[in-house]
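USER: Note each token:
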Amino acid sequence: MNRNGLYALLGALVVLVIVMGVYIYDREKEPQGVELKIGENGISVEEN
């Protein structure tokens, strides 16, 4: 494998790690549990 191919592979791996990190961070910051809303239409309960 030539040097350019090695750099391309390394760059692709770095991008993959960054994208996976952002995805995992985004999934973890979502609220977990039960959401209770009281409004004009009554009571709404949603499970996350």
